[in-house]
Write a structure and sequence with these properties.
It contains 5 helices and no strands. The chain is 87% helix and 0% strand.
């Protein structure tokens, strides 16, 4: 594989690792920690975290993962390298992560943004939000970590 292909693959691994780490941290520390708060505090804290997460660094990481994975797949396809299968799996899992985020998390996050800062019916909003958000975050954490594992498999297979 060319130096460019390897560099793009390593970039994809790094972006995917950062995104996976974020999702993993939410699953195992952020949401359990927020879960100890009362309804209004939970929603306020989540809303502030959600507002802070929309920044160019986080967005470039989250978008960079699938973009760099596609680029690596194209480069490895052109080279006829044995890593293509691993890259295809990584791409499917990365796309699944993005789809889950867009279909489940972004609408739920928007609902907390729309209700802030009053949170007039905090208990009802939290009950509609928390269980579904947490459950699907675990799913996208698994898809993201699976993608990372497949990318590492591609790196090893492409040597």
């Amino acid at each position: 594989m060319t130096m460019l292909g390897t560099a793009v693959l390593v970039g994809s691994i790094l972006a995917t690792a950062m995104a996976s780490g974020l999702l993993y941290s939410f699953a195992h520390s952020v949401m359990p920690g927020l879960g100890t708060l009362d309804d209004r505090e939970f929603l306020t804290a989540f809303q502030r975290i959600d507002a802070a997460i929309y920044n160019p660094w986080m967005m470039s990481t989250f978008v960079g993962s699938p973009v760099l994975t596609v680029a690596a797949l194209v480069l490895y396809l052109l080279d006829g390298n044995g890593a293509v299968g691993w890259l295809a799996v990584a791409l499917v899992l990365t796309i699944a992560t993005v789809i889950i985020t867009g279909a489940v998390h972004l609408p739920l996050n928007a609902a907390t943004q729309d209700a802030a800062p009053e949170f007039l019916d905090a208990g009802r909003l939290r009950s509609r939000f928390e269980t579904r958000w947490v459950r699907w975050n675990v799913v996208r954490t698994v898809t993201s970590i699976g993608s990372l594992a497949a990318l590492c498999g591609a790196l090893l297979a492409g040597r």
